[in-house]
Amino acid sequence: MAEVKLLGTWPSPFSYRVTWALKLKGIPYEYFEEDLSNKSPLLLQCNPVHKKIPVLIHGGKSICESIVILEYLEETWPQNPLMPDDPYERAIARFWVKFVEEKGVEVWIKLFSSGEEKEKAVKDSLEMLKTIEEQALGKKKFFCGDKISSVDIAYGWMARWLEVIEELAGVKLFEPQKFPRLHAWMKDFKDEPVIKGNLPGHDEMLVYFKHKL
Amino acid sequence: MANAEHVKLLGFWASPFVRRVEWALKLKGVDYEYIEEDIFNKSSQLLELNPVHKLVPVFVHGERVIAESFVVLEYIDETWKQCPLMPQDPHERAMARFWSKFVEEKILFASWKSMCSLGEEKEKAAKLTVDAVEKIEGELKGKRFFGGESIGYLDIAVGWMSYWLPIWEEVGSMKILDPLQFPALTSWMRNFLEHPVIKENLPPRDKMIIYFQKRSQEFSSRPRG
């Protein structure tokens, strides 16, 4: 099979989604760390529309947008499936992936505001976490059942990035007594060997994002 | 057989998101029951079936309930195999998903914003829309439809541009779809609107103008937060 390349950056949760999927499916690939302040000609050529990472290059063709990449990986390498077989269960999975895509980033950014806007962002974040805890995850171990799926990967930013956001924004959202199921999920997710071996360090992340604010 | 179970669609006549689902069902010849929702006075059925977003479309197939139009489109394509909408090739499928996301994020919301705002804000949103339209124009590459010779997933996903966008341009007094700047898209719009299934499944233009004029006024008169 043609070679696979991944253009990513170490602090990006979107980049990690693709890394996790590639490793969980056992797909060999070559990783290129991008400097977003000095984007490589390859990145600009392969993602002319958004000029962002992650970008997957397979057999000379590029695919952009982390969730689109996850679907591509699933369809091209069916081994170690990350999506359910049944079309309805797949639809539910896609629904929850879309949910975190749309609500997640929007809410985090607003946590860094102040006054009334920040208060609203805190309220919205808590509501979002409640929906995820009760409706997306429910009583399951992982979002699609007993094994890690693309949905867990999509929510995986919570495994490291959420605590960093909380620290930097000076908010405490993700409390164990409020979200016991999500806390259990996060522990199981981080215990998964592929995830455990592929998470950025907490302190490095704190330094990096503090610098960015 | 799963395909024979009852199909129901909760929708709203002016919604481009609902219409996408109807086009897919009609192209595949799937019978369904349509329920018109008053989105300004939501029914208990809608709130029960889509508690997360409380929006239309909501698609019901037997006991299965699915919300979010793109998610519904993929489910329909996987469940009813006739008249396939998504391309076969994984890279082409990725492109269809990529561009449908792009148009939704960069063209739909920007043009809506342009329609509903005034002055500099309107101009700025209109310019962003035009920049984005330039990118999707390039994707047609001389094809009749985005899907090639026949309508596909991406045509359905961006089909609102052929009918809703010109209406929004009129209501909002902005110019986005210049035929000289976008000849491929202009041609595609004509092909799309002339397709027998699409032609028979469009909301009435005069009603749309009145409806979006009202919505646009409501949005522009909201206090800025």
UniProtKB/TrEMBL annotation, chain A:
<dbReference type="Pfam" id="PF02798">
    <property type="entry name" value="GST_N"/>
</dbReference>
<keyword id="KW-0808">Transferase</keyword>
<dbReference type="InterPro" id="IPR004045">
    <property type="entry name" value="Glutathione_S-Trfase_N"/>
</dbReference>
<dbReference type="InterPro" id="IPR045074">
    <property type="entry name" value="GST_C_Tau"/>
</dbReference>
<feature type="domain" description="GST C-terminal">
    <location>
        <begin position="86"/>
        <end position="209"/>
    </location>
</feature>
<dbReference type="InterPro" id="IPR045073">
    <property type="entry name" value="Omega/Tau-like"/>
</dbReference>
<feature type="domain" description="GST N-terminal">
    <location>
        <begin position="2"/>
        <end position="81"/>
    </location>
</feature>
<dbReference type="GO" id="GO:0004364">
    <property type="term" value="F:glutathione transferase activity"/>
</dbReference>
<dbReference type="GO" id="GO:0006749">
    <property type="term" value="P:glutathione metabolic process"/>
</dbReference>
<protein>
    <recommendedName>
        <fullName>Glutathione S-transferase</fullName>
        <ecNumber>2.5.1.18</ecNumber>
    </recommendedName>
</protein>
<keyword id="KW-0963">Cytoplasm</keyword>
<dbReference type="InterPro" id="IPR010987">
    <property type="entry name" value="Glutathione-S-Trfase_C-like"/>
</dbReference>
<comment type="similarity">
    <text>Belongs to the GST superfamily.</text>
</comment>
<dbReference type="Pfam" id="PF13410">
    <property type="entry name" value="GST_C_2"/>
</dbReference>
<dbReference type="InterPro" id="IPR036282">
    <property type="entry name" value="Glutathione-S-Trfase_C_sf"/>
</dbReference>
<comment type="function">
    <text>Is involved in the conjugation of reduced glutathione to a wide number of exogenous and endogenous hydrophobic electrophiles.</text>
</comment>
<dbReference type="GO" id="GO:0005829">
    <property type="term" value="C:cytosol"/>
</dbReference>
<dbReference type="InterPro" id="IPR036249">
    <property type="entry name" value="Thioredoxin-like_sf"/>
</dbReference>
<dbReference type="InterPro" id="IPR040079">
    <property type="entry name" value="Glutathione_S-Trfase"/>
</dbReference>
Automatic annotation (TrEMBL), chain B:
<dbReference type="InterPro" id="IPR004045">
    <property type="entry name" value="Glutathione_S-Trfase_N"/>
</dbReference>
<dbReference type="GO" id="GO:0004364">
    <property type="term" value="F:glutathione transferase activity"/>
</dbReference>
<dbReference type="InterPro" id="IPR010987">
    <property type="entry name" value="Glutathione-S-Trfase_C-like"/>
</dbReference>
<dbReference type="Pfam" id="PF00043">
    <property type="entry name" value="GST_C"/>
</dbReference>
<feature type="domain" description="GST N-terminal">
    <location>
        <begin position="5"/>
        <end position="84"/>
    </location>
</feature>
<dbReference type="InterPro" id="IPR045073">
    <property type="entry name" value="Omega/Tau-like"/>
</dbReference>
<protein>
    <recommendedName>
        <fullName>glutathione transferase</fullName>
        <ecNumber>2.5.1.18</ecNumber>
    </recommendedName>
</protein>
<dbReference type="InterPro" id="IPR045074">
    <property type="entry name" value="GST_C_Tau"/>
</dbReference>
<dbReference type="GO" id="GO:0006749">
    <property type="term" value="P:glutathione metabolic process"/>
</dbReference>
<dbReference type="Pfam" id="PF02798">
    <property type="entry name" value="GST_N"/>
</dbReference>
<feature type="domain" description="GST C-terminal">
    <location>
        <begin position="89"/>
        <end position="217"/>
    </location>
</feature>
<dbReference type="InterPro" id="IPR036249">
    <property type="entry name" value="Thioredoxin-like_sf"/>
</dbReference>
<comment type="similarity">
    <text>Belongs to the GST superfamily.</text>
</comment>
<dbReference type="InterPro" id="IPR040079">
    <property type="entry name" value="Glutathione_S-Trfase"/>
</dbReference>
<dbReference type="GO" id="GO:0005737">
    <property type="term" value="C:cytoplasm"/>
</dbReference>
<dbReference type="InterPro" id="IPR004046">
    <property type="entry name" value="GST_C"/>
</dbReference>
<dbReference type="InterPro" id="IPR036282">
    <property type="entry name" value="Glutathione-S-Trfase_C_sf"/>
</dbReference>
<keyword id="KW-0808">Transferase</keyword>
